[in-house]
Amino acid sequence: MGVLAPTDTSDHNMERPNIFGIRHVQSILLFFGMCFGYFLRVNISAAIVPMTQPTAGQPFYDWDPSKKSLILSSFFWGYVACQMPASLMAKRFGGKLVLGVSTCVGSILTILNPLVADKGDWQYVCALRVLIGFTQGTVYPCMHTLLAKWVPHQERGFLSCLVYSGAQFGTAFLLAISGNIFDSEMGWPGIFYVTGGIGIVWSLVFLIFGADTPRDTKFISEAERKYVECSTGSDNQPINAAVPWKAMFTSACFYGLIAAHCGFTWGFYTLLTEIPTYMANVLHFNVKTNALLSALPYFVMWMLCLVVSPIADTLINRNITSITASRKIFNTIGQWVPMVCLIALGYMTEDQKTTATALLTIAVGFNAASFCGYLVNHMDLSPNFAGLMMGVTNMVSNLLSICTPLVVGAIVVDEESPDEWRIVFFITAGVYLLCNGLFLVFGKATVQPWNNVNTSASTTTLPNNTDSLSVTDFHS
Fold first, then answer.
1. Facing residues of 460 across strands?
2. pLDDT confidence of residue 233
């Protein structure tokens, strides 16, 4: 089924002008942007342990589990609120400016974290995390907008997965080095100084060398510019694109996609925010070992991200599976394998540290398969509105991210109780079961009729910077 091809389809068969070009430089910049963005997001999950344990020569705060849960949750209050505004700002002003400025502001706020904790109380830390979350709410909408302009459809699978895998690499790397930072002269405040400083440097580099489209950089060759523009359709976009809100929100497959996104987000952020606490209090690992082992699942997930993408592409390109079947297969692997691991993890004790760590690693690692499931399904359903759809599904799913630390805080009163953690893992497994089940029933990977901007009802007109993804030569 040919879908939204550019006017001159012969250009899609253009020979690639070079093996490594400016499109790859832009992808690498975005990879590190995703990586450092997750530095700002994850640092509090690692720091909350030493911040609330007495350590010689370091500040200590006697926050109970419910207060810690509010601090961990508060990031997502701002994050969720910014999803739709960020999508519209990226379309109006360009992803480069919005992403670069917001990351710089978030990095400056991150550096202030130790000062705010020292001069205020946990409520002030929550307020600061809300603001940081607001700045980070721009990341995914901006990434989607920029990838739509820069990644040729022939290379979309690998380069998109490379960029988004920066989240896992950043998470794993920061958790791995956090123990060394905590043991240094800086102590736990150092993790905020380091991550904030790196974020500021990246922002400046990106604002100088990044570009919204191939036409916006002087470094690209004419051959590569034409290749990218013809493949993405960015040279052939409509001046105004009407958003089919009514048709979108009455589409069953869109709700299947929302369910899949919600399942992934609930599981991913439950584990992301709580693994360090679980390992410290139930498995009783010391700070440095805790940091390294908390990072291990995300290194595995990052590596698997780069493995599953070519497998999924091969299955589709060789007509072994349809696109719809492929999306459902990989999303099921990415959510139901972790579901089984979490059920087993609920019965682990301190005497079974190795098995518990292995189960956590598998649970988080196999989430990578979902990147070839729900994460690319926005582009399957509506190439024209994939960016806005990402904003909607990310906003809805991250409403759950607000709830996950609060649910854990309400259940886990005694952080050393395996029985209470078992309830958390069972709830997460149930969410995986339900959400992927809905995706299996309602999910599709065919372009929907409302993708056609000329036939949409109940629409809103966007500014002329609207991005239009181009998908061709797919069969489902």
1. 243
2. 58
Strand runs labelled E in 130-281: 242-244
Give the chain's domains with CATH numbers.
19-226 (1.20.1250.20), 241-450 (1.20.1250.20)
Average per-residue pLDDT for the chain:
83
Quote the CA–CA distance of 200 and 259 in Å, as a whole number.
35
Q: Which residue has the higher pLDDT, 19 or 329?
A: 329
Place of tokens 């990246």: 202
Query: Among 73, 436, 25, which residue's Cα sits nearest to residue 258?
Result: 436
Cβ atoms of 51 and 117 within 8 Å: the answer is yes
Q: Decide if 356 contacts 215 (C-beta within 8 A).
A: no
Name the nearest CA neighbour of 401 among 108, 81, 36, 35. 81
In the chain, helix, strand, coil percent, each to 5?
75, 0, 25
Contact of 210 with 54, CB cutoff 8 Å: no
- The DSSP secondary structure of 95-123, one letter per residue, reads HHHHHHHHHHHHHHHHHTHHHHHHHS-HH
Model confidence pLDDT, tens digit, residues 241-253: 677 889 999 999 9
- CB-CB contact of 196 with 110 (8 Å): yes
Q: Which of 187-191, 286-290, 326-330 has the lowest mean pLDDT?
A: 286-290
Entry pTM: 0.76
Non-local (6+) Cβ contacts of 243 within 8 A are 385, 388, 456, 459, 460, 461, 462
How far is residue 44's CA from residue 50's CA, in Å, rounded to a whole number?
A: 10
Structure tokens that stand for 95 in this block: 């992803």
| pLDDT greater than 80 at residue 173 | yes
The alpha helices in 318-417, defined as continuous H runs, are 323-345, 353-365, 377-381, 386-411
Q: What is the pLDDT of residue 237?
A: 52
Pull the structure tokens for residue 275.
């693994």
Q: What integer pLDDT is reported at residue 453 of this predicted model?
A: 60
To 10 degrees, what angle do helices 166-183 and 287-317 make?
170
Cβ atoms within 10 A of the Cβ of 416, count? 12
Instruction: Tell me the residue type at 234.
Output: S
